[in-house]
Each structure stands twice: as C-alpha cells, then as structure tokens.
Design goal:
The protein is an all-alpha fold. The protein contains 16 helices and two strands.
C-alpha cells in the first residue's frame, strides 16, 4: 500500500466540501482561510476518515462532510498553535497571525472552529441520519476538549525543570492521541460499525498519536522541506521526549546548561545553543531512545488492531507505520 498515493488521491475528495462553507466575501477572514489552506498539508486526518469508512463497507459519499470537518479542525488548531508558540512560519510561508495580524489570527481560528460543526451538520444533506450526526458532533466536541487540555499541559510542561516521561505521555495523549483518533472513529460511526470496533479504534489513537508526535520531535532536528527551522522546539523550550530522556541521563552541569537554554526566550536562543542541545542528545542517545519509543508504540497499536476486520486492520497498520517512517 502506497500511503502517499492514497493521501494524494483521497485528499482531493474533501476540497469541494470545504469550499462550500467558506465563501470569499469578508476581507481578512475568507482570504486568510484560503491562504492558510493553501500552505499545504498531507490531509492525513480526512483520508483516515474516508479509508476507515470504506474499509468497513460504508458509503464514502456520506463521510465526506465529516472528513472535511476533520481537516478544518486540524487547520484551525494549527493557526492557534502558531500563535501560542510564537511561530512565524508555517510550511515555508508566513503564519496567518503574522500575515494578517494577531487579532485577525485569533478570529480566523475561531471562525474555522465554528465551521467544523457546520460541516458535520451538513452530513444530513448526504443522507446521514440525525442520530449519527449527533454521535459525530458528540465525539468531535470531546476531542476538541481533550486537545485543548493537552495543549495547556504542553505549555505548562515547558515551565518544568523535572519533566517525567509520564508527564510527556499524558500531555501528548491529550494533545495528539484523541485528535488523531477522531477521524477514524467518525469514519467507523458513519459506516455503522459496532461499538466493539469503535472502542478498539479509540484505543488505537493513544498509541499512534504519541508515536506521531515523537516522530515530529525527532524531525524538528532535521527540518525537511516544508518544516520549520531546525531546532524550533528547542527554542520554544518544549519538553519533548528527547529532552525528557536527556534530562534524566545527563550530569548536573549538563542539566543546568540544557535547562538554561530551554528556559530562554525563543528569540534569545542562538543556533549555538541548539547545537549544544543536539550534542547532548547525541551523547546520551536521546534520539535513538525516542525512535525506539515510537516503534514500541506502533507495535502496541498493532496488538490492539489484531482482531479487527482484515481490511481495516491492514489500513490502520499501514498508517501506523507511515506515522514513524515519514520524512517530514
């Protein structure tokens, strides 16, 4: 299975649906939405919704509005994430809040968040029953709440000088696990899957979500095409899996130096600081540890999916592998 090919083909299915809820009339709003959507992205989440629904024998047409909602959910969270992190670049272009101003950036994200629920409600126009629409709305609301809690935990953790691996995992399950599971859960709901299958998919998310984020932590040090500059997470003081591991292994003097750099304002953190941190990661094998942790989570995810219908299991396992093998 070629995941990149699937993403390219099925990702296009949601474009028309997204355009249907975003007119082009209000300056510094609709133009900004299209600017942000035009910065790119793999469309992993909507494709997961479509692929799961299809694998379970569902009508793909019926899941398109929900799949589109998953993409808009992802995109508005990125707008606010850039504001919260002070990131000025998003996929090699100015972040929305930089191009349109902070106040507009907040409003644009808020507007897009409302459109998530409009898209889900539009499912009724595709023959999705009211009960199913309610279940989709309920699952999405719970996901949005968990994601916001996880984001708060992430920002709180940046103030900690003794972050534990449990702290990191609790944060990343909240921030990424539920958020990556919701497309699959919704696809299964639209397909009419039983609660056992849906429950298994819910367990799958807290494995691949953290694996995805840990891989992102690692990629932050390589900055392939379309990513932020190398070491941006270090400049923002994020307590990544690599940081947590390194802090637990280095000596007191090294720990003091590492924390001094992490606790600096981002604009005061130099490339030399980033290089020093990378050297410490190399000395203590923190990158390799993080890679092993991500693979461990993927192996666990495959234990969870082993009793799912073969077609669904194959798709989920392929996507799980892709989460840790991707290069950007």
């Amino acid at each position: 299975m070629n995941i990149e090919k699937i993403l390219a083909e099925k990702g296009k299915l949601i474009d028309k649906e997204i355009r249907s809820v975003f007119p082009k009339s209000v300056q510094n709003l609709h133009d900004a939405v299209y600017y942000h959507l035009g910065t790119g992205g793999k469309r992993i989440r909507p494709v997961l919704a479509i692929a799961v629904c299809e694998a379970l024998g569902g009508d793909v047409k019926k899941v398109i509005p929900f799949a589109a909602a998953c993409e808009v959910l992802h995109q508005w969270l990125l707008i606010h994430d850039d504001i919260e992190d002070g990131d000025r670049i998003r996929r090699e272009k100015e972040a929305v809040w930089v191009k349109y101003g902070l106040a507009h950036g907040i409003n644009i994200g808020d507007y897009m968040s409302a459109k998530v629920y409009e898209l889900i409600l539009n499912s009724k126009n595709y023959g999705v029953g009211n009960e199913t629409v309610f279940r989709l709305l309920n699952a999405t609301v719970k996901t949005a709440v968990k994601t916001a809690e996880g984001q708060a935990m992430d920002m709180n953790l940046r103030k900690s000088n003794n972050p534990s691996e449990k702290d990191y995992m609790d944060m990343v399950v909240g921030k990424t696990g539920h958020y990556l599971a919701i497309p699959m859960v919704g696809g299964a709901i639209v397909a009419g899957a039983d609660e056992k299958v849906i429950g298994t998919i819910r367990e799958f998310g807290p494995c691949i979500g953290p694996a995805f984020q840990i891989t992102d932590d690692i990629l932050d040090l390589t900055a392939g095409k379309g990513r932020k500059e190398i070491g941006r997470d270090i400049k923002e003081g994020k307590r990544s899996m690599l940081v947590v591991h390194c802090l637990s292994k280095c000596n007191k003097k090294e720990k003091k130096s590492l924390l001094r750099i992490l606790n600096k304002p981002a604009d005061k953190t130099t490339n030399a600081d980033v290089l020093l941190v990378k050297k410490l990661f190399g000395k203590y094998g923190s990158i390799e540890y993080a890679q092993d942790k991500a693979k461990e989570l993927i192996n666990k995810s495959k234990e969870i999916t082993k009793d799912l219908p073969p077609k669904l299991r194959s798709i989920l396992d392929e996507f799980a592998d892709y989460m840790v093998e991707r290069k950007r």
